[in-house]
Amino acid sequence: MAAPALGQNAAETQAVRAAVLRVDVPHLPPISRLDAAPQDLGFAGARLAIEDNDTTGRFMGQDFEALEITATPETAAAEMDKLLAQGIPFIVTLADDAQTLALADQAGDRALVLNARARGDGLRGKDCRFNVIHAAPSHAMLADALAQFLMWKQWPDWFLIAGSHPEDVALADAYRRAAAKFGAKIVEERTYEDTGGSRRSDSGHVQVQQQMPVFTQRAADHDVVIAADENGVFADWLPYATWDPRPVAGSAGLVPRSWAPSLEAWGATQFQNRFEKLAGRPIREEDYQTWVALRMIGEAATRTQSTDPAALKDFMLSENFEVAGFKGQKLTLRDWDHQLRQPILLATGSVTASVSPQDQYLHQSSALDTLGFDRPETECKF
Amino acid sequence: MKVSTAILTSALCLGFALPGAANRVFVSNEKGNDVTVLDSDTLEVIGTYPVGARPRGITISPDGKELYVCASDDDLVRVFNPETMEETHTLPSGPDPELFVLHPSGNPLYIANEDDNLVTVVDTQTHKVLAEIPVGVEPEGMGVSPDGKVVINTSETTNMAHFIDSESFEIFANVLVDSRPRFAQFNDAGTKLYVSSEIGGTVSVIDPETQQIVKKISFEIPGVLPEAIQPVGVRVTGDGSKVFVALGPANRVAVIDGETDEVQDYLLVGQRVWQMAFTPDEKYLFTTNGNSNDVSVIDVAALKVVKSLPVGQQPWGVVVAPN
Predict the structure, then answer these.
(1) In sequence order, what are the residues at sequence separation of 6 or more whose Cβ sits closer than 8 angstroms to the Cβ of residue B256?
(2) Domain identity same for A18 and A130
């Protein structure tokens, strides 16, 4: 398989068009002001990806662009229509599960949707769609990544606290599944009802200091508290406030993530530097996921030496596709649900403490398939 | 105190110059901001010297009089007297210099600027920038043909080996290789160019004449996950018969037959092995092991690892002084 020698200047530059569609749901401010969403969330990752693609494109006679579209849940469908009317073949979405599914069905065979935010296992399972690629990791991958680490740490007894929102319930399901898969035991489960309050008010921490110990009182003996809190309602208040002195993981404490601004290994330092120079802030998961989605398109264009959307789609979904994402190994797509295989970082606030899969979890085809739904378990039927 | 001991030691070494005499081995410690100097004969540490922020690429002039260190976070190349380890001057390098290669004549120096998608060419005599060559994303690997006419740069995110004319500073060919190309090395005859791909897990053997990939070498080690096999540094013996490839977190150096390009052996070294350097007589090959903070010493004739030497924090590059 000899690669061709490429001339420096191709005769004619061909364009690859994409769009990033971010659907913003009105939210209360997060518990920590450090977590407030920047205006360019996701878009900054897109800009870096387009810069990267264009630099390579210079040698290939290829040019890349990504429109940046912001929508609300009410305007998302109309914005999607506009993009489809322009014939944009690749649409990166930053939306919740339900909205992602609706947008995918709206796009049909007119565009390939690259999901850079929604984490629900249903989207990769019974609600999977052939025209969707998931650059964001699933709940199951995140939960399995944490479970492997906790089992290595020999902390098999878990106290699971889930929020009351549907995404929290779905994430809690992923932790139950991970416990069964890796031999952990959920010894106690509680639901933290979102009744409002306790967020960023002057009295918030005062209230919480009283609330959290009481809430976690008289739990069965456990090694670790796992929080499933997709909306940032309570998890950040758990560390140091639990009744029993136990570490917290999941949505606070040791958090499984697709990316963290603390990662330095595998060339990540350079990636962080380039991002921070461009965006003037540390990178967020949505930026990384958008970056990798657009890099997949760029990589497909480089390898196929084509800008034909159909050729790029076919190549991305073929077994020959791989992309490098600063995680120490190539990232590839699962053919059974179009999920991007990827290592999951386990990050505290300041450091990347570990990266899963953990070494001792082996797999017959790829260690990355120890994370999330493997081929025999998938409910996806294209 | 440290420095004067070092001078004394090296003076003694020079005084008793024997066949296969000691050469200084310089190891850059990326996280330690220093260079550890070893003695290639006694295989002992001579000393450790500060060299600036985040030292990575390291090389030495053909006459052995100037030691060059990429101080990545200082955006400079720092130049040291290899005997005293005192800084003599700096060279402009462009931002974030990672790895570089000297023209066989000792001038100029070709530097990969990892954050800026450039190769900077610097005159080592006048200390002036001669050219900035735009290349792919995250340039890292730098190689130069033995006749000095062709400079190779590999770009880690673009995944190409760029062939640069060393006189016109123009790119005249680009070869697409597997993911994350880290290093480019010619054999001394100039008939083969080896380019390692860290994430792709392969070494591409390129015919420099035609710029075509003639072979892709892949690696398989029983008991090591394929994902952990990440080729980085490449060194070729002077006669071209053996090629050594550092395999990163596989903690092995692969030995390849330079004729057939087939893997012959794997040598167990320290953790996360990246860069390597021969002694001038090719008796030893030193490897930098970034996660175990040590250097492994390979006996080249016996293909055995004979010693490991603790160095500084996260050893990155290594160079051995010429005779």
Answers:
(1) B203, B217, B242, B243, B244, B245, B262, B263, B264
(2) yes
d(CA B305, CA B253): 10
Instruction: Kindly report the number of other CB atoms within 10 A of residue B113's CB atom.
Output: 25
Q: What is the pTM of this model?
A: 0.89
A32 touches chain B (CB under 8 A): no
Cβ contacts from A onto B, under 8 A: 97
Residues B225-282: tens digit of each pLDDT: 888 999 999 999 999 999 999 999 999 999 999 999 999 999 999 999 999 999 999 9
Structural domain range at position A79:
14-137+260-342
Find the CATH number of the domain harbouring A197: 3.40.50.2300
Alpha helices in A108-158 (DSSP H): 121-124, 139-152
ipTM given for this complex: 0.82
For residues A121 and A102, give the distance between their C-alpha atoms in angstroms, rounded to a whole number. Answer: 16
Question: Could you tell me if A1 lies within 8 Å of chain B, comparing CB atoms?
Answer: yes
Rounded Cα distance between A187 and B172, Å, is: 65
Same domain, B123 and B214: no
Same domain, B101 and B157: yes
Token pair of A171, please? 């994430």
Q: Are B76 and B94 in contact (CB under 8 A)?
A: no
Indicate the SS3 state at residue B275: strand
| Chain A residues 351-370 within an 8 A CB cutoff of chain B | 359, 366-368
Tell whether B110 and B194 lie within a shared domain. no
Q: How far apart are CA B227 and CA B179, in angstroms?
A: 13
Query: How many Cα atoms are found within 13 Å in the side-chain-facing hemisphere of A55?
Result: 24
Mean pLDDT across B17-40: 88
| Residues of the domain holding B71 | 51-176
